[in-house]
């Protein structure tokens, strides 16, 4: 399965450059989000499958694709002396450490996120006022802001200063933007990459993916909001909110997040929509990319030459 590792490295290096420069991600933010998650799925599944298959009992198949696995098993059995044992022990230890770090960070990330959300909801119950007319919780504050509290039962929050500063149409557009975040479960999208970023802060792929996904979910929410409101109205509202210091909690997604200038440019000068044919082709490539490691594993089992090295040990 060394080809899978090479595939993971190639995607990790190439995807940030290709997707970071691609204009079609701004033309179709939803497809851009899918592209980044297809990339992450491909890399993680390639590494995961490689580690999983490496612990399976292997036989003495003669196909070239089997040689690496045969060497690992034979080295673990002491055939190549102390050096072989050290190499296999190092590989196993690295795999265990990476898996342990991911699990540990996942537990910590979940606990911290739930604690922040619980504390903020408790605060909202004390100082917030539910407004049926707006479909949001209004909080008294001198700083204009609007945001969505992440997690189950997603709540839209707007400050009294924002209500006072924005006109009725502008406020409605901002609230539509936040409802788009809630309907699209954008907190889950950002939470997934946030966990990977926490676990592997040295990864350029995860760092770039976090930045790009942050701007794409905002563009997607804008895209949904302007189906009901004029783009210029939402643009004016974003300018009014962007001038204030941030008051948005860590467990929320704010209306002024992402690349503000890129969002304003997109609202004032909307890009051309992707054609159906081009969109279909991109979606097909993304599907193939995300499924490639799993398809590779299936091929190993489907073809006898590849399957020889995965049979039970003799």
Structure write-up:
There is one protein chain. With about 325 residues, the chain is an alpha+beta fold. It has a domain at about 130-270. The protein contains 13 helices and 5 strands. The protein has helices spanning about 1-20, 25, 30-55, 65-75, 80-125, 160-165, 170-185, 185-200, 205-225, 230-240, 260-270, 275-300, 305, and strands spanning about 130, 135-140, 145-150, 155-160, 250-255. Strands 1-2-4-3-5 form a 5-stranded mixed beta sheet. The radius of gyration is 24 Å and the shape is globular. It starts with a helix and ends in a 7-residue tail after the last helix. The model is unreliable at about 55-65 and about 310-314 (pLDDT under 50).
Element layout with pairings:
Layout: H1 2-21, H2 24-27, H3 29-54, H4 67-76, H5 81-127, E1 128-131, E2 136-139, E3 146-149, E4 155-159, H6 160-165, H7 168-183, H8 186-199, H9 204-225, H10 231-242, E5 252-254, H11 260-268, H12 276-302, H13 304-307
Parallel strand pairs: 2-4
Antiparallel strand pairs: 1-2, 3-4, 3-5
By secondary-structure content and strand pairing, the structural class works out as: alpha+beta
Give the neighbour order of strands across the main sheet. 1-2-4-3-5
Radius of gyration: 24 Å
**Total DSSP E strands:** 5
The best one-word shape is globular
Biggest sheet, in brief?
Answer: 5 strands, mixed
Query: Segments where pLDDT lies below 50 for 5+ residues?
Result: 57-65, 310-314
**What helical percentage do the residues reach?**
55-70%
Helix and strand succession?
Answer: HHHHHEEEEHHHHHEHHH
Strand fraction equals 5-15%
Number of helices: 13
